[in-house]
Amino acid sequence: MTAEQLESLLRQGEGLTSEFKQARHLLPKDVFESVCAFLNRQGGHLILGAGDDGTARGVDEAAADQLQRDFVSLSNNPTKLQPPFLLELAPVRVGAALLLHVYVPPSSQVHRSGGVVFDRGHEGDFRVRDEGRISQFYARKSSYYSEGRILPHLRLSDFKPGLLDKVRALVRARRADHPWLLLGDEELLRSAGLYQTDPLTGAQGYTQAAALLLGRDEIILSVLPAYRIDALVRRHDVNRYDDRLDLRTNLVEAYEQLMDFVAKHLPDPFYLEGTVRVSLRDKIFREVVANLLVHREYLNGRPARFIIYADRVEVDNANHSVGHGPLDPRGFQPFPKNPTLARFFVQLGRVEELGSGVRNVTRYLQAYRPGGQAEFIEEDVFRTVVPVPGGGASQADSVAGEAALGVARERLLTLGVAAGVAQRLRLEVEQLAAGALTTAALAGQLGVTDRTVRRDFELLREAGIIEAATVAAHYQLRG
Question: Which of 211, 281, 304, 437 is the most exposed place for a label (fewest CB within 10 A)?
Fold first, then answer.
């Protein structure tokens, strides 16, 4: 959440999907009533440090860290929020005021705060005492969110051995004081919302989401026989495929295998964010892959597809749509199809927050594929199209290019230039090999002028590191 986005929320005022609360030193006593109401209705934004009129008053900066820790701890405490739903506040500065923000998604479960069910209306939060209405909540959520389907015969022994240890390692790498790290296996699964009780039938057990995230392959096959992810490369043989990955495993490992497939077949041009090099490929496709996995309707037998073409990647998966047609990234309102799966991936650090996928793909694509525009089309099958640079030459196809690049790096050592210039020349050679940035963009990344980049190219050509035709083509095609 950027400062500009938060300011826009404050200007819109409180309503069905936004709640402002003053909080200087302590969490407001009724904060989890609002969290509970958002979870039970359609989600919303909770902002601490703002007045009812939208004025950014701020929290005490010395207390901000403690407020964040208390909020995380209490959201995971069943005496405060039942069932728990782990959430984290994020600091956002608006002018001189420090605010704390969290987007609370709609949940696939019905929640209580202090033993009371809360709902959300345009006037705020209100208690729900009528048992008939509470039953309607359960019926509505169970009919919409298939991830909460209880599998009463699923046991802890049906989960893949060692996978929960991997989950803890991923969580620890993201946050050393994460509440899950203090819990045993069964407690962790309950805290993650993967063990539920159906109050209408009395059924108890692990859910479909638990099976998908952690189950052994044969267990997933027995629960969802049609579950499958088909990853293909169709650069040369567009009717069949050049390479293929057929996935029928748990979502934790499916994510890793799909990202390895992406790394094998898609380029990763040099890019600096500030002074830090980041992977544009990972920034974009970690979101695409995570969205494919966590927003799919798994009761639909249609296999998910991830297809790499020469100029684009196309992804489609069965969808429980809430709208129809292309999504506009500028006015996009996120809606989780599987909130429990999405929240689990957030805790692993594999997505940032709900809605981050569309925003991050849009943000980083201009550097990854200048001029490219991603498409997100919501229908009964959700379709994502992401343009890729340089014809999408695969790692396997570029072995010779990598060897040549190694020779180029060796030759740079003989040019007798200053260390800083040699480093810049090495980066420019890498970019020519990747073919992903314009001359102007490369100059901007390196903090030099276009003229400097062109002069460097001539030096590289004279040293026999690149050919004259390469320089001419770069000027003509790259600008």
Answer: 281
In tens, the pLDDT along 73-124 reads: 999 898 899 989 989 999 999 999 999 999 998 888 899 999 999 999 887 8
Q: Where is pLDDT greater, at 98 or 441?
A: 98
3-state secondary structure of 32: helix
Q: What distance in Å separates the CA atoms of residue 333 and residue 354, rounded to the nearest whole number?
A: 9
Residue 312 CA to residue 266 CA, distance in Å, equals 10
Contact 371, 358 (CB under 8 A): no
Strands, DSSP E only, in 235-374? 243-247, 272-273, 276-277, 304-309, 312-318, 325-326
- Those residues whose C-beta lies under 8 Å from the C-beta of residue 16, and which sit 6 or more positions away, are 41, 42, 44, 120, 121, 122
- Per-residue confidence band for 270, with pLDDT thresholds at 50, 70 and 90: confident
Q: How far apart, in whole angstroms, are the C-alpha atoms of residue 211 and residue 232?
A: 25
Signed CA dihedral, 341, 342, 343, 348: sign only: positive
Q: Which pLDDT does position 383 carry in this prediction?
A: 92
Helix 419-434 and helix 439-446: axis angle, to 10°?
A: 140
pLDDT band at 323 (very low <50, low <70, confident <90, very high): low
Beta bridge partners of 93: 98
How far is it, in rounded angstroms, from Cα 145 to Cα 320? 9
HSE (side-chain half, CA atoms, 13 Å) at 97: 22
Eight-class DSSP state of 201: T
99: exposed, middle or buried (C-beta count within 10 Å: 0-12, 13-18, 19+)?
buried
Rounded CA-CA distance 76/192 in Å is 9
Structure tokens at 40: 């039970």
Res. 473: pLDDT tops 50: no
- The pLDDT assigned to 410 comes to 57
